[in-house]
Amino acid sequence: MKKRIMVTGGCGYIGSHTAVALIENDFEVLILDDLSNSNKEVLDRIKSITGIRPKLLEVDLKDSFLCDNMFCYNKNIDAVIHFAAHKAVSESIEKPLKYYHNNLYALINVLVAMEKYNINNFIFSSSATVYGNPDELPITEKNKTKRPFSPYGNTKRVAEEVLEDITISNKDLSAISLRYFNPIGAHDSGCLGELPNGIPNNLMPYITQTAVGIRKTLSVFGNDYPTKDGTPIRDYIHVVDLAEAHVIAVQRLLEKKQENAFETFNLGTGNGYSVLEIINAFEKVLNQKVNYTIADRRPGDVPQLYSDTSLAKTKLGWVAKRNLENMIATAWKWEQNYRQEQNLQEN
Ligand code: UFG
User: Fold this and answer.
1) Residues 119-156, buried b or exposed e (16+ Cβ, 10 A)?
2) 67 alpha carbon – ligand 1 mean position (Å)
3) Which of 30, 100, 157, 268 could form a disulfide with 181 if both were Cys (CB 3.0 to 4.6 A apart)?
4) Going by CA atoms, what residue is nearest to atom 36 of ligand 1?
5) Do 120 and 172 contact (CB within 8 A), yes or no?
6) Residue 342's pLDDT band (boundaries 50, 70, 90)?
7) 4-186+236-270+307-321 adopts what CATH topology?
8) Domain map of the chain by residue range?
């Protein structure tokens, strides 16, 4: 029988790519999503790639009663991958309670229900933001976590602390926290990718929307950082590589290969690229200029974040396979396909 994985937030950017990877690896996927920052049509996209349309339960997990119901009426869950969370860094600074309320209530409700219904395998969608502005680079999992600059980031850090505590008290529970660096790119097919609501906060969707003509000019937030060209350095990772890491993490839990009840892994490539390097690489792949101007620094940005990925390599047997060119090419293919679909629908 297929193993059944509950994927909360499975209609979102990383969740949907993970759903594809799970289905391709013969898992059954059950998606829980409130569709607050995603769309049901993602299910058709998953079907067009895998041939299978996963079941969606539309639910707000911060409602404890509804959350309990999901577990009560959906039996035989082998593991939960928890993506469901708000993720806009700047919004979280304006509305911290919205973030603490949503991200932490949903997490706690899921964990309470898992304990009640005896489900013991949990994967958490974390972020490199838990390292704050790191003292040492590249960042290993041994780097101390620091208070992140945003309430969004702090929900990730607090969530990891919750997991650490409960895996000590509940001996049956195993949890893995995956700390993503900067996910970009899209599925090779061009049918699935990132779909930000409104004006994008993140660099890559802003670049592709500028290139496609929806945005006039990309603002580069600061060129006076202590880096090679003055713009911040990040570790960009292909979303499909990230999705594959989740499959490996699920297998690790199901096969009981964990060395500790709570484990954390960095998911990055180990390569740092500056904002200007990303723009240049994009221009090279597209063979056209991207309109940009230098603007003020964005509050909360750190100069450099890139990972040491050796732990994921040795313990999970996972390394990122896709290079920057592939990340950019797939992000661009997705942007173009999506805009073409929209135009066809409008005409
Ligand atoms: N940037 C611009 N212009 C833009 C958007 C971004 O210059 O329009 C710059 C940022 O200043 C930063 C770099 O591009 O230097 C990357 O910014 P992103 O917003 O794409 O990514 P962040 O590194 O800020 O944030 C990402 C995730 C967060 C996560 C964080 C962890 O989006 O969810 O990494 O470090 F918390």
Assistant:
1) bbbbbbbbbbbbbbebeebbbebebebeebbbbbbbbb
2) 32
3) 268
4) 129
5) yes
6) confident
7) Rossmann fold (3.40.50)
8) 4-186+236-270+307-321
